[in-house]
Amino acid sequence: MKLVIVTGMSGAGKVSALKILEDLGFYCVDNLPIPLLSTFAELVSTQSMEITKAAIGIDIRNGNGLRDMDAHLEQMKKAGYPYEILFMDASDAVLIRRYKESRRAHPMTGDQRIEKGIEEERRQLAFLKEEADYIIDTSQLLIRELNQNLKQIFVENQKFENMTVTILSFGFKHGLPTDADLIFDVRFLPNPYYVENLRMKTGNDREVQDYVMNCPQAGVFMEKLTDMILFLIPNYVLEGKNRLVIGIGCTGGKHRSVTIANRLYEQVAAHTEYSVKIEHRDI
Predict the structure, then answer these.
(1) Residue 3 contacts by C-beta under 8 Å, 6 or more apart in sequence?
(2) Phi, psi (deg, nearest 5) at residue 105
């Protein structure tokens, strides 16, 4: 019997994950009281229940019960009820935005600001994130992508790396991307904007790509940048990071940055097992 404990930050997609798992054939229970964990595991393990896959939603709503979570998990291990922990996460900025858009109150906020509630929730759930088998950051994840990830993990039993790399092109004149972890400035490369027949095209067009990459410095830069990024990613993973946004910027965000971002995406996707995404902010 496969048992998954779905937990994580409020607003990070725990309910969506449970709904997807239910569609994938899991028997799902949300907000189960923590003292009932072992009882539930024992119940669904009996042949009379005819349940082969189950998922339990546990979150901050359990209140003081979280303090005893470790003891109940240890009890389940001793009783021979194996389980996996899926932790749903998102950046503070995204969580704040989602709560403001939904106009719902954060369960830890009370009369404080949302930021304080999120900070306290992270503190109380830190031990579960450390014990998690899978961490999915939904900050930039679409529902269909979450569906694919959960299917990959719990149905296809494929290897899942707790790291999502987003390569983001942007224009400096439109402002820095606030969620970028690393930013690289490619304004030293020749600018197709000043070539009349290329001005209205973008770095997704072959003519622009050829113009940018025909510059000798572009090839050297790509080689050094790719080597550094492929070195950094696994080291970030070792430090517990599960989301990396790499910003590639030029003046307007349409030509040089798009070209380099596309090339970097191809290299990283081809040489790592991590989830890699490409976004062009200012096209």
Answers:
(1) 41, 44, 54, 55, 56, 81, 82, 83, 84
(2) -90, 135
Q: Which tokens in the block code for residue 187? A: 């304004």
What is the C-alpha separation between 82 and 2, in angstroms, rounded? Answer: 7
Residues of the chain with pLDDT under 70: 47-49, 110-111, 159, 161
Sheet of 243-250: strands edge to edge? 182-185, 243-250, 164-171, 275-280
pTM to 2 decimal places: 0.69
Token pair, residue 176, equals: 């820095």
Q: Cβ distance 265 to 167 under 8 Å? A: yes
The rounded Cα 68 to chain-centroid distance in angstroms is: 28
Domain 2-154: which CATH number of 3.40.50.150, 3.40.980.10, 3.40.50.300, 3.10.20.90: 3.40.50.300
H-type alpha helices, 135-253:
143-154, 206-213, 216-238
Which string of DSSP letters, residue by residue, matches 229-263? HHHHHHHHHHTT--EEEEEEEESSSSSHHHHHHHH
pLDDT in tens, 86-100: 999 998 989 999 888
Q: Interhelix angle for 256-271 vs 206-213, to 10°? A: 90
Q: Show me where the domains of the chain are located.
A: 2-154, 164-280
* 215: β partners: none
pLDDT at 6: 96
